[in-house]
Amino acid sequence: MADEIKSRAELIDALRLASELEHGLMAQYLFAAYSLKRYDYEGLPPEQVERVRRWASLITLVARQEMEHLGLALNLLSAIGGTPSFSRPNMPQRLDYYGAVKIKLALTRCDEETIKRFQRFEAPDDLAEPEPPESKDPPKPIDQKKAHAWCTNLMGVGRAEVAAALEAGPGLLTAAPHIDILYGIPYQSVQELYQKITSGFEHLSNELGERNLFIGKPENQLFGGPSSPQHGTMNDLNQYGLDIIGVTDLASAKQATRMIVEQGEGVRVPPSYLPNTHFCIFTRIRGEMEEYGLGESGARPVVPNPMTVLQPDVSPDDEVSVITNAHTREVAQLFNESYEVMLLLLLYLYSDQVKTKAQTDALMDAAFFPFMTMFLRPLAEILTELPAFKDKPGNAGPGFELSGDVILFPDLDETWTLFQERIDSLVAGYQRVVSMGDPWLDLPGQRTEQGKPSQIWQRLDYLRQSMERLGADWQANWLNIGRTTEV
């Protein structure tokens, strides 16, 4: 088993693992954020509703930065000739899926136990109590007093010293089983994984030469700022608040990995930035949950790991909550289909398929704004208010289900037709949902003026209209002979 990354194949494998981890973390954080209460009718006094809303904003910020980290990992992968990937396992997964590092993949409501799990994900190595490799138990929560001391810069050990110790220390744990079979890059944490990746870039730059290592086309990456082809336009990623850089050489590769570690664990950042790191954000939320007694009552009664069907790759399957309410299942299927189309749009943007700058701009507009903001977020929020079951209590939520690997359409000539078909299918799905009637009037806070539909129905109908406009715009602007206009 290799202790260090010594080949391009090993570096590609480690970056695919990093991409998968960032994708999985993002989904878990978004699920938790959407599960939080946000309305006065949900049983919290106004001041606590406002506090919980702030938690949702903070966790959403963390999730957005995980999307940045995913983008950076994909740029690193593309830069060295790897194929970008948005694949990941469905959740839940067993505790040892990523080896003895024990990153538990699960979609759970935003209670205190979930925040402790997130805090552990993002913890600097110096604060995470070492786990015996043979232990089958979940990792111990971070000591909150030590976490508070770290986040207020009161620890006796400086972060720079911790980082130096990390670089010198041996790797003890193994990577994901499916990675370990081939290469098995040892790492103790996500933080150390990126340190191994950085070292791999340094080694291969010396071994092969930078020109021979960085063989990917810069135009196949997504990034913002002055060097981006979209700089100065509304399609610059910086306009969306995303800080993603292009990777073309060793210096930019090291900058990308450093950005990921600094935003997450807070190693090497100035004291003024510490409160904004992922670890310290979760530390703050955990502290407020404990102080105000909101560890259970701040979130809706969302069930763990809600799924429309029992996906074959989940483990253990007794942690899955299969949605049995027929109306809710229809909405959940809409979310999953919208999520997959968004990933396909992003995968195409990272591909080497022929596309003009105008097409790239239009696809970015379709992926980043409409699908992420106009469809996925409102659908997820609606799902956390809907009943998961037909015969017992509990709310649903966005399952982020993938029926298989996310792979690009193989026929370039038919790409636009195939995207049109997927969007037309979503239009039909929205039409089907709003045509089912209005089964949500008796849910809390849903009755409005006499004779008007529920707020949930009105929101879904607005989404239907928006998807219809997107479908018409696609058909009008993405010409392709033989396009299918009806599904």
Could you explain the architecture of this structure?
By secondary structure, this protein is mainly alpha-helical. The chain has two domains: 1-291, Ferritin, core subunit, four-helix bundle (Ferritin, Up-down Bundle), CATH 1.20.1260; 303-487, Ferritin. The chain is 50% helix and 1% strand. The chain is built from 14 helices and two strands; from the N terminus they run ααααααααααββαααα. It has helices at residues 8-35, 46-79, 112-121, 144-151, 159-168, 177-180, 190-208, 210-213, 250-265, 278-292, 326-350, 357-383, 415-434, 455-477; strands spanning 306-307, 321-322. Strands 1-2 form a two-stranded parallel sheet. Helix 1 packs antiparallel against helix 7, helix 2 packs antiparallel against helix 9 and helix 12 (357-383) packs antiparallel against helix 14 (455-477). The radius of gyration is 23 Å and the shape is globular. The termini are far apart.
Short description:
The protein has helices at 8-35, 46-79, 112-121, 144-151, 159-168, 177-180, 190-208, 210-213, 250-265, 278-292, 326-350, 357-383, 415-434, 455-477, and strands spanning 306-307, 321-322. By secondary structure, it is mainly α.
Described by the principal axes of the CA atoms, the overall outline is globular
Largest sheet: 2 strands, parallel
Under CATH at level 1, the class of the largest domain stands as Mainly Alpha
Q: Just name the CATH architecture of the largest domain.
A: Up-down Bundle
Number of spatially distinct domains: 2
Low-confidence stretches: 161-186, 481-487
How far is the first residue's CA from the last residue's CA?
50 Å
Structural class: mainly alpha
CATH-wise, what's the superfamily of the largest domain?
Ferritin, core subunit, four-helix bundle
